[in-house]
Amino acid sequence: MLWNALAIAIREIRRNITRAFLTVLGVIIGVAAVVTMVTLGHATTNAVKNQISGLGSNLLALRPGAGFGPRMPSAGVPDFSEQDAVLILEQIAGVAAVAPIRNASFSTVYLNNARSTNVTGSTVSYFGIHNWKIADGRVFTDAEYRSGAAVCVIGNTVKKELFASENPIGAKIRIGTAACEVIGVLSAKGQAGMGDQDDTIVVPLTTIQRRLLGKTSNHDIGQIAISAQDGADTTAVIADITALLRQRRNLQPNQDNNFNIFDTRQIADTLSSSTKMMTSLLGAVAGISLLVGGIGIMNIMLVSVTERTREIGIRLALGATAGEVLLQFLVEAITLSSVGGIAGILIALALCGGLSLLIQLPFVFDAQINVTAFFFSAAVGILFGFAPARRAARLDPIDALRHE
Amino acid sequence: MNAIPPRPLISLERLTKTYGQGDAAFQALRGVDLTVRAGEFVAIMGPSGSGKSTLMNILGCLDTPTTGSYRYDGIAVQELDVNQRALLRRHALGFIFQGFNLLARTSALENVELPLLYRRLPRKVRHEKAREALAAVGLADKHRNTPSELSGGQQQRVAIARALVTEPRTLFADEPTGNLDSTTTGEIMELLSKLNAQRGITLLMVTHEDDVAAYAQRTVHVKDGLIASDRAHAA
After folding, report:
1. How crowded is residue A247: how many other Cβ atoms within 10 Å of its Cβ?
2. Are A337 and A297 in contact (CB under 8 A)?
3. Chain A environment of B110 (Cβ under 8 Å)
4. How many CB pairs under 8 A join A and B?
5. Which pLDDT belongs to residue B1?
6. Closest by alpha carbon to A226, among A94, A318, A328?
7. In chain A, which residues have their Cβ closer than 8 Å to the Cβ of B117?
8. How high is the pLDDT of residue A57?
9. Which residues contact A217 (CB under 8 A, 6 or more apart)?
10. Is residue A58 included in any domain, yes or no?
11. Is the CB of B103 less than 8 angstroms away from the CB of A314?
């Protein structure tokens, strides 16, 4: 019975292909809009997540001062000591690695090329905590760290600016007043929210303290990067570190923290939840256009029932039951809207492919939204096809045959 | 079951049909008694508004009587519901209309196939039977043509093929030649007479032309909702 209805429906659709196309145009556009919006939204969410996690896995960044964001230079707030970093690694449960960090900006020169670059002094753990991969050469050794050797690992931007296509490994660059040998090049990470991550030079902490900053500067460290163990409860880890540091910094119970801990995972969650919300919002707006498309189907199907009254009369006279006429019109509506749904999905996939190339987002095929959009469009056919189908089925054969 | 031949195929007793209610009520049929035996060719004549179309619709199971009884092949039709009447039409009755009532933009073959779709026959069987029916009405070479590409006489032949394809026991023809010229009328009537004679199909035909009615074996005149005369033609 269903096959039969499908055969009759397809025959009717083929008979007036232009009308069929105009009928489903709304559904095609609606489905294409929903799928495109949601797919691009997911791609954006993924891109944000990847960028944040590129900063470091389970990274907790410990900084002096009461919170991040625009704030006054924290005058009088003490920096951290290397001992703080050692104690955090030894005493706090759930901490996988710790890297004390001292940042400073220096002019760097190689032959005739010069630029001002942020130089980071840290331990070998720094590379792992911040997800840095080595593209070429090596990182510094423990021996080089202990001795404060004049070696450096450069970021991809520094390599391009100073060396162009030349092989930098083994070359000596001048950082501030000291000459350092380039021993490694970092893999490119690209742009993040806070600028070019690849415009960086990493040296042993001992090197920046002894050779670059000079004896007059203080040798405290400005930041401690902490990597939590996989699956560790970062909230508990943050609480433990806070307690330890309050004690180390002699803070009284009535005093606020004069340091802050920045949890990248939390930031990633916040950012991705806001892009997800944006996706849902765009999807909902596009969903309204799908609804309008459904109403378009209903409108044209209702007109077509009137137009085809005589045809319905003929079918009834030839022995079609009211149920078969209902099924025919319902199946016609569902077939139209499903075909429209498939067309919409194909258009959306082409559109997403093109747009993701254009705005350089990785294209993520999401089966769920495509399947959902398809079934939704079929449901639109059932919902908006039912009223016209029932009207057709209720026609009286004699009246229908007399209809002009 | 059919122990006593020739049992009447159609029998109407005190059949009435009233449209509307109360003061606006209009009685189209006021007590019709009629018997038709299998294999008969009956012409129904009468002026406009006489009730002949109402009678035809009730006989064709498209409409129901208000009172009285209608037995078709022993089935009490007035007791059937709308679906049972549809199934009776599907399996036993065929229709030919004045306006042909073919589906537009649909080939002759597909038009003829239509009733077989509702019988759920496989595609191959449908095509075979539809081609046979078209050949029987002399349109074997026109099966691809749509109604707009056929003359009036050819369209009516397609409609006849569509009525024949299910091999119905009874064929109802509502002014089958009303839209045709006299030459074509003759051809169509010859075809209908042949079907009646060769296949034993019972034929009930509404017409208001005497020379068309002359093809039938019996003419029933309807007037003011009653049967005014009922006479067999001389052979």
Report:
1. 10
2. yes
3. 11
4. 63
5. 45
6. A94
7. 4, 7-8
8. 62
9. none
10. no
11. yes
Q: Do A276 and A296 sit in the same domain of this protein?
A: yes
User: Which of B9, B146, B35 lies closest to B88, judged by CA?
Assistant: B9
State mean pLDDT over A249-261: 86
Eight-class DSSP state of B18: E
Do A325 and A1 touch, CB atoms closer than 8 A? no
In a 3-state reduction of DSSP, which class is residue A139? coil
Residues A190-238 pLDDT 10s: 665 556 788 999 999 999 988 888 766 666 888 899 988 887 888 889 9
Query: Which of A257, A283, A308 is the endpoint of a domain?
Result: A257
Cβ <8 Å between B115 and A319: yes
Question: What tokens were used for B45?
Answer: 């004549």
**Which 8-state DSSP code applies to residue A318?**
T
* Cα Dmax for chain A: 107
Q: Which domains does chain B have, with CATH numbers?
A: 9-18+28-232 (3.40.50.300)
Query: Based on the domain organization, do A101 and A164 belong to the same domain?
Result: yes
A315 CB within 8 Å of a chain B CB: yes
In a domain, A212, yes or no: yes
The mean predicted confidence, pLDDT, of chain B is: 91
Residues in chain A closer than 8 A to B82 (CB atoms): 321-322
Q: Print the domain residue range for A332.
A: 2-52+269-402
Question: With an 8 Å Cβ cutoff, are A398 and B57 in contact?
Answer: yes
- Does the CA dihedral A131-A137-A142-A146 come out positive or negative? negative
Q: Residue A14's pLDDT band (boundaries 50, 70, 90)?
A: confident
Residues A85 and A21 in one domain: no
Return d(Cα B109, Cα A181) in angstroms, integer: 89
Per residue in B99-141, pLDDT (tens digit) is 899 998 889 999 999 999 888 888 899 999 999 999 999 999 9
What length does chain A have?
404
CA A1 to chain CA centroid, Å, is: 48
Q: Classify residue A329 by burial, with Cβ atoms within 10 Å: 0-12, 13-18, 19+.
A: buried
Q: What one-character-per-residue DSSP string does A47-64 give?
A: HHHHHHHHH-TTEEEEEE
Task: Supply A12's token pair.
Answer: 């009717």
Number of domains comprising chain A: 2
Confidence check: pLDDT of B163 > 60: yes
Q: How far is it, in rounded angstroms, from Cα B207 to Cα B46?
A: 8
Query: Of A75, A87, A49, A79, whose CA–CA distance to A62 is shortest?
Result: A79
- The neighbouring-strand residues paired with A204 are A122
Asked if the interface predicted TM-score (ipTM) of this complex is over 0.95, the answer is no
Beta bridge partners of A260: A63
Cis amide linkage into residue A253, ω under 30° from 0:
no
A314 touches chain B (CB under 8 A): yes
**B87/A315 touch (CB, cutoff 8 Å), yes or no:** no
∠ CA A382-A385-A389, rounded to 5°: 120
